């Protein structure tokens, strides 16, 4: 580390160290050493301590069908039992499980006892409809108590849920229903976000007007906005009607630890999103374990993870982790900027939030907003309840880290910069708040037990100080089990032959510091973009663009963006003449809307440029590196001698 970097090491405060479960680096190192000595014993100890098993496991890690690893395979449990009944039985029935705040600021509290009853009633309703163990259920709901209830109810009866983010289009929803072969869909009439009322049911109707309807026989609709919706006789049911009169109890379905708890679709480097399949036992173990070690969750904490349940962060740190630890958490329906950009801080103050977990993109937008509107700055609020801050989803730039540390955390609260992925299920590389000295922009060191490393193209370790490919050397309990319906793609994507099938390939580049061995993530090494912490495949956006009648060809790249981390830039060749001026602006808007409709607003290119062709090599390969330079507005420095048609570079600089 250079002396300049050395100056920027932040030690956790003496108070953070003294109260933390993992107190000091010695304690962290002792956990790592325990895992080194006896890898299976380390995970088995935690699995026994943190989860309640119906049938105790006798096997820990089964590598016989690698890379299709199994954990605790002969043990049985129920995830919903572990999240709800267990807390009620130990006397926490009256404890608040969820503090829900709606978009318009109404607050509702749900105790563990209430939540259990509501989950049981809903689980009974699903069973009455014939939904059974192993069936897939799609959940297309806004942030709501009912969203958590729907997920927990599926877990209770052993149905595998697949939550689709409420911002995804009918087309994206349809693909997921079909790929999963879902038997039921849970949605709502609509949603409120930032004072606006948005539809959901009508989008679901459009998705079901297709082959998706073949498998999906039941649609359950939450009444949220009161908007008029079309209810299809025999298929559609109001949620409040189907739960009415259901018994308050529901015998959990005891499932094997490997039973698929959920499938969550995420973008990869090819056009089709991947259904990442997670287990029950191993997944819940690391959800609970990271709540305890990374967030040091204690009984009196108020935990708030701002992620939507449509993303993995909302699975592990809203729907499962906090409940598995019997914590009180916030579920927030709205957006950080409504009714003003002080919303998050006002809520932290009012609900006395002690652990706050959000994305760098939100932090960056709130920095900007509080510069423009000083009344909404975090320093205007009483944030003294906070003790730990977290970030996730993309690299955090040191300036944003420092602002978060000083202005939100008052210089007292450790920040855990947690690196992980949909596929990893839980935190993989992160500081522990009472142990790890922090360096802004670095996710620091592996979670105890996780064997993260950096290698070259041959799979050989690279020395610290040199960049390379981020891998994980040993299977871990909450890892992805397969890609739903495509085991071959799973193996090729994550355990490629280049590494003899032995290393988990994360898809990120990283570097370790020469002295501290701290990890810093340098970004994706595949064709995946990270826009506001959301993963988007460039091919997925390209396929959406070429699905438009007038588009002949499209290439999509990322460009660094101050607010969203990366922004989407599309280079498009139309079938007709290349538009310029006003015609080009019109076409840009039309194509942005088109992509919004095909995938969802988050996939809309920020910038679209038209050319008569794309820069290609003589063998016809699109030169993406060149496009990245053009997207940034940089002068082309690289060799263009292999380029078939150098003249089009000028066209692609802008729509002049
Ligand atoms: C990708 C995974 C994990 C939940 C949210 C995103 C990037 C994630 C960090 C971090 C730098 C990060 C990586 C990763 N990423 N956390 N702390 N620092 N980059 O889940 O959609 O599966 O995306 O997000 O590129 O591969 P995801």
Please give a quick description of this structure.
With 656 residues, the chain is an alpha/beta fold. The chain contains 21 helices and 30 strands. Helices cover 33% and strands 21% of the residues.
Give an overview in words.
With 656 residues, this protein is of the alpha/beta class. Helix content is 33%, strand content 21%. The strands form 9 sheets. It has a 7-stranded mixed β-sheet, with helices on both faces. A 5-stranded parallel β-sheet has the order 7-6-8-11-12, sandwiched between helices. Strands 21-22-24-25 form a 4-stranded antiparallel β-sheet, with no helix packed on it. A hairpin with a 6-residue loop joins strand 24 (504-512) and strand 25 (519-524). The two termini are 46 Å apart. The model is unreliable at 1-7 (pLDDT under 50). The structure holds 5'-O-[(S)-butoxy(hydroxy)phosphoryl]adenosine (WT7). 5'-O-[(S)-butoxy(hydroxy)phosphoryl]adenosine (WT7) binds at residues 266, 312-313, 392-395, 417-422, 443, 506-508, 521, 524, 530, 533, 535.
Give the bound compounds: 5'-O-[(S)-butoxy(hydroxy)phosphoryl]adenosine
CATH class of the domain at 532-652: Alpha Beta
Largest sheet descriptor: 7 strands, mixed
DSSP strand tally: 30
**DSSP summary: helix tally:** 21
For the largest sheet, list the strands in their spatial order. 5-4-17-16-18-19-20
Tell me the span between the first and last alpha carbons.
46 Å
CATH topology of the domain at 532-652: GMP Synthetase, Chain A, domain 3
Radius of gyration: 24 Å
Mind telling me the CATH superfamily name of the domain at 532-652?
ANL, C-terminal domain
Low-pLDDT parts are: 1-7
SS strand fraction = 15-25%
CATH architecture label name of the domain at 532-652 = 2-Layer Sandwich
Mean pLDDT equals 95
Estimate the helix proportion, in percent. Answer: 25-40%
């Amino acid at each position: 580390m250079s002396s300049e970097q050395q100056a920027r090491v932040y030690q956790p405060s003496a108070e953070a160290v003294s109260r933390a479960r993992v107190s000091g680096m010695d304690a962290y190192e002792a956990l790592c050493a325990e895992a080194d000595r006896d890898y299976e014993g380390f995970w088995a100890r935690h699995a026994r301590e943190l989860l309640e098993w119906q049938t105790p496991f006798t096997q820990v890690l089964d590598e016989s069908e690698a890379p299709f690893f199994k954990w605790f395979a002969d043990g049985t449990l129920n995830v919903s039992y572990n999240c709800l009944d267990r807390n009620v039985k130990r006397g926490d029935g009256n404890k608040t499980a969820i503090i829900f705040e709606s978009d318009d600021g109404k607050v509702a509290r749900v105790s563990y006892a209430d939540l259990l009853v509501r989950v049981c009633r809903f689980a009974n309703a699903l069973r009455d409809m014939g939904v059974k163990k192993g069936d897939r259920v799609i959940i297309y709901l806004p942030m709501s108590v009912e969203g958590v209830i729907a997920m927990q109810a599926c877990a209770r009866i052993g149905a595998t849920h697949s939550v689709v983010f409420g911002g995804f289009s009918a087309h994206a929803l349809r693909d997921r229903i079909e790929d999963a072969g879902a038997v039921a869909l849970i949605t709502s009439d609509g949603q409120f976000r930032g004072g606006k009322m948005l539809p959901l049911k009508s989008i679901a109707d459009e998705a079901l007007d297709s082959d998706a309807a073949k498998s999906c026989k039941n649609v359950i609709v939450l009444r949220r906005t009161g908007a008029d919706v079309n209810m299809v006789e025999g298929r559609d049911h109001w949620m409040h009607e189907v739960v009415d009169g259901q018994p308050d109890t529901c015998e959990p379905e005891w499932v094997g630890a490997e039973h698929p708890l959920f499938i969550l679709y995420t973008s990869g480097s090819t056009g089709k999103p991947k259904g990442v399949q997670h287990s029950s036992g191993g997944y819940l173990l690391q959800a609970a374990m990271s709540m305890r070690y990374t967030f040091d969750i204690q009984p009196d904490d108020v935990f708030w993870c701002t992620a939507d349940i449509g993303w993995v962060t909302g699975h592990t740190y809203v729907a499962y982790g906090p409940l598995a630890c019997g914590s009180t958490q916030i579920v927030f329906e709205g957006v950080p900027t409504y009714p003003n950009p002080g919303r998050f801080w006002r809520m932290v103050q009012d609900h006395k939030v002690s652990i706050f977990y959000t994305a760098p993109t939100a932090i960056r937008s709130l920095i900007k907003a509080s510069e423009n509107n000083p009344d909404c700055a975090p320093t205007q609020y009483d944030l003294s309840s906070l003790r730990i801050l977290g970030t996730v989803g993309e690299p955090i730039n040191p300036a944003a880290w420092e602002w978060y540390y000083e202005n939100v955390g008052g210089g007292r609260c450790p920040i855990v910069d947690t690196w992980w992925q949909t596929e990893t299920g839980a935190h993989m590389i992160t500081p522990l708040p009472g142990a790890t000295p922090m360096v802004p922009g670095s996710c620091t060191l592996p979670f105890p037990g996780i064997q993260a490393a950096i290698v070259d193209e041959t799979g050989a370790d690279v020395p610290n100080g040199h960049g390379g490919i981020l891998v994980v050397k040993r299977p871990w309990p909450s890892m992805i089990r397969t890609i739903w319906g495509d085991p071959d793609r799973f193996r090729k994507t994550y355990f490629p032959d280049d590494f003899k099938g032995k290393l988990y390939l994360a898809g990120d580049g990283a570097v370790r510091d020469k002295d501290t061995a701290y990890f810093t993530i340098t970004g994706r090494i595949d064709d995946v973009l990270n826009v506001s912490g959301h993963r988007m495949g460039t091919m997925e956006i390209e396929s959406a663009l070429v699905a438009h009648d007038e588009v002949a060809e499209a290439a999509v790249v990322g460009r660094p963006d101050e607010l969203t981390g990366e922004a989407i830039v599309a280079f498009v060749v139309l079938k007709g003449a290349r538009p310029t001026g006003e015609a080009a602006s019109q076409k840009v808007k039309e194509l942005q809307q088109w992509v919004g409709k095909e995938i969802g607003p988050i996939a809309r290119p920020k910038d679209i440029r038209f050319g008569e062709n794309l820069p290609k090599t003589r063998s016809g390969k699109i030169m993406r590196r060149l496009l990245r330079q053009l997207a940034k507005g940089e002068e082309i420095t690289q060799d263009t001698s292999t380029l078939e048609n150098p003249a089009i570079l000028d066209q692609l600089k802008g729509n002049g």
